[in-house]
Design goal:
The chain is an alpha+beta fold. It is built from 16 helices and 18 strands. The chain has helices at 4-21, 26-40, 51-55, 62-74, 78-86, 102-112, 117-125, 137-155, 162-177, 189-192, 206-220, 295-298, 302-334, 349-363, 377-383, 398-402, and strands at 160-161, 185-188, 197-198, 202-205, 228-235, 242-246, 278-282, 285-293, 372-375, 390-391, 405-409, 412-416, 423-427, 432-439, 447-453, 456-465, 470-483, 500-504.
Length: 512
């Protein structure tokens, strides 16, 4: 015995078919189709529901709920019976032909008496359709193709027609999109490519591709690993927005309890607060990289898609982010007066400059551990001449090479960057801040995800370019960078050490 849900699904689907065949309101027919499928797939026995409970089922409004209750109580829907009486049962077969349509089906019935697919084939063979307004040889070809598709859909491989698949996909996407943790969802596969028959519906989350892009970005950056990073996803602002990021917690010097207790905090000893301060960073850049993608590339699994499509895109965005980080670094190197620059032609001048930078950091109470020397190619060339420089490729450390550490000298880990110009920076990771914001995932795109992870952020979009008539893969991010410690200490009011010491080669590294 059929479930009440299945019975009502069949009844509503029949009514939708009949409304379409008679040339009724297309919106009404579609509404009944959607309600039929929703009721058929609803887990609760609908015979136990009242009108309010029925209206909680997707696509079931008051009018449809009233008809369902009427059918459950009487076994009849008068509106359906009236429509049935007006049309021979065989006519309903015609709407299974996807290229025909309800209005043409009704025309065939009224003008030629066609009420089945077999009668339709005979009429096409006898060339009777060519005398009807709106029909012709091309229409005949399309209908024959549609009959072939309908037969394939009904008899092989469990494939269904696109209209039916679209309804199911829209329901699935709506349900998944409302699930906590879903970063954006859309149908894919043969349905996304609008094939006439559908074998399965693939659901693809844009966040998965965005996460792949993030892992690729983290591997691309060198300077990005050497600075303080602050990232967020689903950012609703834009270029020029200023965001405030927190600096590391700070406190006043410890006091001597054996002397007069400072007038702070509460209690007999007084308390010292760990205070956080913030730094405003302007998002000066919006880096976007769109590329056209082929149908073949869109069918790849996520790992292959990342390697073939995302990797080149992320590499280009990574280059722009590296340049953004280098901007304040190069400004510091360039700001060094000519009289304080280092002449590499003088013996041990570069080594002495590094020693002096270390002393300056000592005086600023910077810990010995975690000191970094970020160098330009020209400065690296000078280091190679110094016998105190231990090259990473000769030290046996594979970890150093993976992290882009090219060597060590005088308690500094050395990193070379082609984006650094004219010298070097002795620094710690707290010296500069990189701020990245992934724009909010696009609600109108086929796929979109906005993700942040370990101080990096990225948005990925896959959509259709109507002008270029092609699919697009788009990666984008907002970015800005600046020194993290500038101006007076927010607690003591005294000038604070900026955590970096620039070293500039004479002639800004040109040797002039």
């Amino acid at each position: 015995m059929a479930r009440p849900n299945d019975e009502v699904e069949a009844v509503l689907q029949e009514y939708a078919d009949l409304v379409a065949i008679t040339g009724g309101d297309a919106f009404k027919a579609r509404a009944y189709e959607k309600a039929a499928r929703a009721i058929g797939g609803f887990p609760t026995d609908i015979s136990t529901l009242d009108a309010e409970g029925l209206r909680e089922i997707p696509h079931v409004g008051k009018s449809i709920a009233d008809k369902v209750l009427e059918y459950l109580s009487t076994g009849r829907i008068p509106a359906l019976e009236e429509t049935r009486a007006a049309i021979p049962p065989g006519v309903r077969e015609l709407i299974a032909v996807p290229t025909l349509g309800p209005r043409k089906a009704m025309t065939l019935y009224e003008e030629l008496g066609v009420s089945s697919v077999e009668q339709l084939l005979d009429a096409i063979h006898d060339k009777k359709l060519r005398d009807l307004k709106g029909f012709g040889p091309r229409t005949e070809e399309n209908i024959l193709h549609g009959i072939d598709l309908a037969r394939k859909a009904g008899g092989s491989g469990g494939r269904i027609l696109i209209d039916a698949a679209m309804d199911v996909a829209e329901q699935i996407v709506a349900e998944l999109s409302g699930t906590a943790g879903c970063e954006g969802c859309a149908y894919a596969g043969s349905l996304r490519r609008m094939r006439e028959t559908i074998g399965d519906i693939m659901e693809n989350a844009g966040g998965k591709a965005a996460r792949q892009a993030l892992s690729l970005l983290a591997a691309e950056l060198v300077l990005g690993r050497l600075v303080h990073r602050d990232a967020e996803s689903e950012f609703t602002g834009g270029v020029g927005n200023v965001v405030n990021i927190k600096k590391p917690g700070q406190t006043q010097d410890a006091h001597d309890a054996g002397t007069a207790t400072p007038n702070i905090g509460s209690g007999t000893q007084g308390y010292l607060d760990v205070r956080e301060s913030s730094v405003p960073v302007r998002l000066d850049h919006h880096f976007i990289h769109p590329v056209k993608v082929t149908s073949r590339e869109l069918t790849l699994d996520i790992e292959s898609f990342a390697a073939q499509v995302l990797a080149p895109q992320v590499r280009k965005i990574g280059e722009r982010i590296e340049g953004t980080i280098a901007e304040p670094m190069n400004a510091a190197i360039k700001a060094v007066p000519e009289t304080a620059t280092v002449d590499p032609s003088k013996a041990k001048a570069v080594r002495e400059a590094i020693i002096a930078a270390g002393v300056t950091m000592d005086e600023g109470n910077v810990p010995d551990t975690g000191r970094i020397l970020v160098v330009s190619p020209a400065f690296y060339g000078e280091l190679l001449k110094d016998d105190l420089f231990v090259r990473a490729d000769q030290s046996g450390s594979t970890e150093a090479l993976r992290s882009a550490n090219v060597g060590d000298i005088l308690n500094f880990q050395v990193f070379k960057s082609n984006y650094i110009k004219g010298g070097a920076l002795a620094m710690t990771r707290e010296a500069f801040a990189l701020v990245v914001r992934a724009p909010q995932a696009s609600m109108g795109a086929k796929h979109s995800g906005s993700e942040s992870y370990q101080g990096y952020a990225m948005r990925w979009i896959q959509d259709w370019d109507t002008a270029g008539l092609s699919d697009l893969s788009i990666c984008d991010v907002f970015a800005g960078a600046k020194p993290l410690f500038e101006g007076p200490d927010p607690i003591t009011g005294l000038a604070e050490f900026c955590r970096y010491v620039p070293i500039t080669l004479k002639g800004n590294g040109t040797g002039k």
